[in-house]
Structures are given as structure tokens and as C-alpha cells.
Write the C-alpha cells for this entry.
Amino acid sequence: MRWLLIVMLSAGLVRAEGEQAGSFDYYVLSLSWSPTWCALEGDARRSPQCDPARDLGWALHGLWPQYEQGWPSHCRTTHRDPSRRQTKAMADIMGTSGLAWYQWKKHGRCSGLSATEYFDTARKAYQAVTRPAVFRKLDQPVRLPAEVVEEAFLKANPDWTEDMLTITCKSRRIQEARLCLTRDLEPRECGRDVVTDCSLRDALLENIR
């Protein structure tokens, strides 16, 4: 029985990478609170994303093809990888061209789209979201329930419901807002493995100054 469990788990791990491109159920649009990433990783790397002059706020982390349970990654595709010009063009909303390349490699190939189509789709999805302006006005760090961030997004986007959006935390900080979308980029309810929100009552949220 123990070995059967190991085999089943191993089979699941094999399936987790290298699937055929274009085989998925919906998208997760991930928006990263840039000040959190900078505080935890970006500042140490001296990433241009963390330059206060950029003032990115909710940056595009990625557009991720998703199954109803689980997700594909590093898929096989016949489409060519993006050029440096294409990845650089995404830095205005993703922070760096390096992130754009990584997201294409891990997730974009699974969309079944060309690099141009994938980045255009990701930008379209990102621009369709009204990002709450209140968090950009912070002049000092605050601690707040993570659900307050969710409520702000729902108020700014009244067509959404709470099961379409997930707020995540990392190191006791607000990390990301993840919106579930149909393949036509219409908001939809998230799968059970995506919908669980951060439950912190005192998550740190700060702006870059």
C-alpha cells in the first residue's frame, strides 16, 4: 500500500510539468504587490522594479493557465520563444524583462498562444482590472486584515464576487491578488485549490517611498 501511494504521487509529479500546450480550463491572473516583493527579494537583488520612481504598486506577476485542480507548467509548444524586445516591452507592468521571460517559459507556453498573443492577452487582462488606489496613497506601513484588501478590490470591481478573487500573504505581508478568469478573460469562480485566502488579521502592507 505504501509503495502504491508513492507511485501515485510520483505519477502526479510527472504530470505537473511538460503537458501539451493549450490544454487547460481557466486562467489565474496574479497581481503582485510590488513593495512586498521588493522588501523580501527585490531590494537585495537591486532590481530595477524596486526603484521608487517606478511606483509599480500592483504589478503583473503572471497569467497562469489552470486546471480545475492543479495547473500545467513548462509545456511543450511549437511556438517560438519571445525576443528580448518582446520581454522588455512587458517590463512597464511586470517590473523586469526577466520576469516576463520566466513567466512565458513556465506558464505562457502552456496557453497554446504565441508569445505575442500571450503577452497581449496578459496585458489585456491586467488592464481590465481596476486596482484600488487607496493602497498607493499610504505614507507609512499599516497592519490590516487581509480581507480588507479583498474588499477593496471587490468594491473597485463590482462585477466580481469573493470566490473569484484570492488574496495571498508571504512572511506576514500582503503578497498577491489572484483573479480567476475564463479563457475569454471573463471573471469566474476559482477552483478549490486556488480560492483559499490569507487569514491574517495583521498583515503588513507598505508602499515604496
In short: The two ends are 56 Å apart (CA to CA). Strands lie at 26-33, 58-66, 142-144, 165-170, 173-181, 203-205. The mean pLDDT is 91.
